[in-house]
TrEMBL record:
It holds the Pfam family YjeF_N. Its cofactor is K(+); Mg(2+). CDD domains: YXKO-related (cd01171). This is Bifunctional NAD(P)H-hydrate repair enzyme. Residues 210-461 form the YjeF C-terminal domain. PANTHER family: ATP-DEPENDENT (S)-NAD(P)H-HYDRATE DEHYDRATASE, ATP-DEPENDENT (S)-NAD(P)H-HYDRATE DEHYDRATASE FAMILY MEMBER. AMP binds at residue 407. One of its GO terms (biological process) is nicotinamide nucleotide metabolic process. Belongs to the NnrE/AIBP family. Keywords: ATP-binding, Isomerase, Kinase, Lyase, Metal-binding, Multifunctional enzyme, NAD, NADP, Nucleotide-binding, Potassium, Transferase. One of its GO terms (molecular function) is ADP-dependent NAD(P)H-hydrate dehydratase activity. (6S)-NADPHX binds at residues 56-60, 117-123, 146, 243, 291, 335, 408.
């Protein structure tokens, strides 16, 4: 996993003070990294338009223009006068070298957006919006320097933002690049070297971006085993029974030794999934909440207080009963609307979904602070998983998963790993990664996936 940072100004400052690396030196390296990326990945292209703002993001762009001058047909467009000391200095250097500064925008093979970086601190005016809309309309390859212009330090987009194919971000990964909103703008994210190894540039963080290597699949290493070695998951099916059945099928395909659906009515289940009317004696984990609908409170309370691992989803986030388990190491998997209800029930915040989506990291952090034992998995374009105020982002998900039933598959995967003895956090991380990565392996079009396809892809991981 890689560290994420809410801000990097303090990391830059530490470079100047502790490592005697000046701002000028860092900027030269930042621009060199961008030049190298462009030379290595877009050498067949001829023309490059670099659009610069007044601050140091613009200064990065001016530096880049100097470095690529004559290698490509470089055009430097200054959207505003250079204001920062570095922008002024870099402009003098560019002028001295004869870099082509243009007065009008024109299309190019590659566009580099250096209008605003981390210094965006107010709403865009009409001119800025027009500029960004015009750039978005070009069919060029678009590269954002540090962060696509228009995304602020909280990862919010107030009006428009540059739709980048690639974001080359300076020194370290920023949290703002991993909000749900940002996902439509950032494209591929690359970290630029600032002339200091990343592990030396970075300090501690409580936020991490998950990599594929963080997925710890339940491979069976012991030869001497039997079905009981891999746990028994009980999936509680409610009035929408399909949800429980989908979860049960996913759980079985993900390695649980036994899976039973708990339901008072008789169900038509595949032969390998069992049915029980009450919780099994040897149950090692319970999955509950999906499709639950109306139910008898005392019965659910008994299940929630049973001393086994639990994954809780869906309808239970609308019931005060949920507050009774928040001192346990349970896994909760709400989508945004459910999380809003949960936040209200546990008196953390009374907000609407758009406020949550604008500040996902903030509210996950607040919840995790109040309930440190709980593993929270907030669904979204970029899933956030937290425990004890540590946050992990899974950015592998895609629109393929935006379907009824995908969440039930996820609950089944988490339940399966819990039943097999995974710790709550490890179960949530591996299940979430498997869910998202498997969906990427689905090779048909991106609208046709159904839960059984997803389970098939998960079984092939
Ligand atoms: N500090 C350092 O050591 C390094 C900084 N680097 C670059 O520096 C950038 C940050 O530079 P700055 O702090 O100068 O900030 P920016 O360059 O992001 O923007 C600041 C400028 O934009 C103006 N501005 C902000 N919001 C505006 C709006 N909505 N409409 C119009 N004008 C607006 C500000 O008044 C200021 O002049 C980073 O994103 C990164 O690209 C990199 O070169 C790496 C090294
Ligand atoms: K930018």
């Amino acid at each position: 996993m890689q560290k994420l940072f809410d801000e990097v100004n303090s990391l830059d400052k530490r470079c100047y003070e502790k490592f005697l690396l000046s701002e000028d030196l860092l900027m030269e390296h930042a621009a060199s990294s961008m030049a190298l990326y462009i030379s290595e990945n877009h050498s067949s292209y001829k023309s490059i338009l670099i659009i610069c703002g007044s601050g140091n993001n613009g200064a990065d762009g001016i530096t880049l223009a100097r470095l690529l001058h004559t290698k490509f047909d470089v055009k430097l467009y200054l959207f505003s006068d250079a204001k920062s000391e570095m922008a002024k200095l870099q402009l003098q250097r560019a002028h001295a070298l004869g870099v082509n500064v243009v007065d009008e925008l024109s299309n190019a093979d590659v566009i580099v957006d250096c209008i605003f970086g981390t210094g965006l601190n107010k709403p865009l005016n009409q001119n800025c919006e027009n500029l960004i809309n015009t750039l978005n309309s070009y069919e060029s390859i678009k590269i954002a320097c540090d962060i696509p212009s228009g995304i602020n330090s909280l990862g919010q987009v107030e009006s428009v933002a540059l739709e980048a194919d690639v974001t080359i971000t300076m020194g370290a990964l920023k949290t703002s690049l991993f909000t749900d909103v940002a996902k439509d703008y950032v494209g591929k994210i690359v970290v630029a070297d600032l002339g200091i190894q990343r592990n030396l540039y970075e300090l501690d963080s409580n936020k991490y971006l998950l990599d594929e290597s963080d997925m710890n699949l339940p491979f069976r290493n012991k030869k001497n085993s039997h079905k009981g070695s891999f746990g028994h998951l009980n999936v509680v099916a409610g009035c929408k029974k399909g949800a429980g059945i989908i979860a049960a099928k996913a759980a079985f395909g993900f390695g649980a030794g036994l899976v039973s659906v708990v339901c008072h009515e008789n169900l038509d289940l595949p032969y390998h999934i069992m049915q029980t009317h009450f919780i099994s004696e040897n149950c090692t984990a319970i999955a509950i909440g999906m499709g639950l609908g109306k139910y008898e409170t005392q019965e659910i309370r008994r299940l929630l207080n049973k001393d086994v691992a639990k994954i809780i989803d869906a309808d239970l986030f609308y019931d005060e009963l949920i507050c009774e388990v928040l001192n346990q190491e349970v896994v909760l998997t709400p989508h945004p609307k459910e999380f809003v209800s949960l936040l209200k029930l546990c008196a953390i915040a009374d907000i609407d979904v758009s406020e949550l989506q604008n500040n996902r990291f903030l509210y996950v952090q607040m919840f995790s602070k109040k309930y440190p034992k709980v593993v929270l998995l907030l669904k979204g374009a970029n899933v956030i998983i937290s425990q004890n105020e540590k946050l992990f982002v899974n950015s592998f998900g895609s629109a393929v998963l935006s379907k009824g039933g995908s969440g039930d598959v996820l609950s089944g995967l988490v339940g399966s790993l819990l039943a097999q003895g995974y710790k709550a956090l490890d179960a949530a991380i591996t299940a979430s990664l498997a869910h998202a990565i498997a969906s990427r392996n689905y090779k048909k079009n991106n609208y046709s996936l159904i839960p059984s396809h997803l389970v098939e892809e998960i079984r092939k991981l």
